[in-house]
Amino acid sequence: MTSIFARSARARVLFLWLALAACLSLAPGCSPAAGRDVAADALDAVRQAASSGGADAGERPSDSEEVRVARAVDGDTLEISPGVAGHTDVRLIGVDTPESAIPGETPQPLGKDAAAFTARALEGRTVVLTFDEELVDPYERLLAYARLAQADHTHNERLVRLGLAQVAIFEPNDALASELYAAQDAARTSSSGIWSLPTRQQCRLADRGNGIGEGSVAC
């Protein structure tokens, strides 16, 4: 559910844009400078709403939070306890694992493998969640990198290095993009996971601009 903070931020954005429209088209005495000020306020409100991600009480959590993984929903989605900023679902940043459960369809190739790997690696264990610029996605899931306390690499990177995920960067959450792409190059070179699948199976995956998946040149 969208928080009160998110709704109020969006209402402020709408008000400011309406004020801008009135200033530019309905009020002859409105100066260009005033119009620019209203536009700047609207843009700041948009950025504030996006960066807050609808966090409860209008506050972001600290840069990292230690939580317990209650369940691996699939390869790249977790349920955590306790929640962070009122959210208990986490979507791993920068990666896209094959779907393990698609209503009315068979799972994508290696989807169940990716989900099983994440379950074995993280379920019931304590992880450190690290956040990027945007905190929450449109489905109200926290966006985070997850790392076991003593691990050298994030689980996000491990998935990519094993070929159980492909890189999927959505700006502005790109803090670990270089590490993830390096891991993907290694997986591709060693033909690990999805990179070992025949083309017909690769074409069932999502196209994230990595030369693999439906819509890519090979498909």
Automatic annotation (TrEMBL):
Leader peptide range in chain numbering: 1-33
Source taxon at top rank: Bacteria
Alphabetical keyword list: Endonuclease, Hydrolase, Nuclease, Signal
Domain TNase-like residue range list: 63-197
InterPro entries noted in UniProt: SNase_OB-fold_sf, Staphylococal_nuclease_OB-fold, Thermonucl_AS
PROSITE patterns xrefs: PROKAR_LIPOPROTEIN (PS51257), TNASE_1 (PS01123), TNASE_3 (PS50830)
SMART domains linked to this entry: SNc
GO MF annotation list: endonuclease activity; hydrolase activity; nucleic acid binding
Protein name: TNase-like domain-containing protein
Record organism: uncultured Rubrobacteraceae bacterium
